[in-house]
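User:
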Amino acid sequence: MKKHLVLAGGGHAHLTILKELAAFTGRGHRVTLISPEPFHFYSGMGPGLLGGSYRPEEVRFDVRAMVERAGGVFIAGEVERVDAAARRLILHSGAEISYDVASFNIGSRVPLERLGGAGPGVVPVKPIARLAEARAAILARATSASEPLRLVVVGGGPAGIEIAGNLCRLVEEHKVSAAISLVAGSRLLGGFPPRLRRKAFASLARRQVTLCEGSRVVAVNHNRAVLDDGRFLVYDFAFVATGVVPPELFRQSQLPVGPDGALLVNARLQCTAHPELFGGGDCIHFAPRPLDKVGVHAVRQNPILLHNLLAALENSTLRGYAPQRDYLLIFNLGDGRGLLRRNGLVVDGRPAMRLKDWIDRRFMRRFQVCGEQD
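Assistant: Predicted structure:
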């Protein structure tokens, strides 16, 4: 009996499935993709999109075209609730989609509510498409500004470093008068090797980014970033890179979740309570051990999900996901330089950025449909 596979989200962990969709439709299975937008943006190239290294069409996948070309169905929407007992997904629109097997790759979000909610000039670093909008808004504001623009980055992790560096690139290339500040919390890149931290600090200092360590932003509103010591920074644009959280969908659907509310899955990327539900990327909590919220895991989960979803439809053996403990990490510093970490090795410079660019472009070529960048 042929079955119905529903993919919620066209993110990194679902890309191989979308590319190889004929493996499902060719066997008579129906496949439906539910996604809020027809395009999925690659997060690894997001900071470069802000800085101007890449055009929007270079960093996105046409997931609608991918699914429809293989005979699947695309539904523009978002899942609001899962009725696991009835095997139904309820969308925000009220529509209900029945499934035999479903997989979630719906990503994560920046919890702006912890900082007082969104307001004019506040830019969360996810969804990635917001970075392209922010770039255009900064350039538009600069044409009429009588004083230097005040750009504040909230968060001292990898995303904060990359956003600050690429804001520098943006204002330098377009000769925009701007003051850029980064509020790092307790310290810049806490938890990373001291050598890597020193190189990141030097990169920011070289480009005259004002670094604020030992203070945390507790609110962003009315064009003020309020610090926990009572001080505040006035901003025209505030980029929030304070970490991400999974959607409330799983907790609200009374599915098993990890401490952060992400869907709890076993080594086979399968919901621990409902074997017909799977997931990958930022929206899952991997029961064998917690995983960093980095794209490398979603990318490496691709072949496991491809195999396991087909196996679940056809009642065959599932495979387990074995995550790397140490993985290649390269930051885009925005000035043509990269900052690389792997197995205790820390390297910075243009070769590191060239390597990152090559890896990212190769990844894009694997999954973009023919003619997508035209």
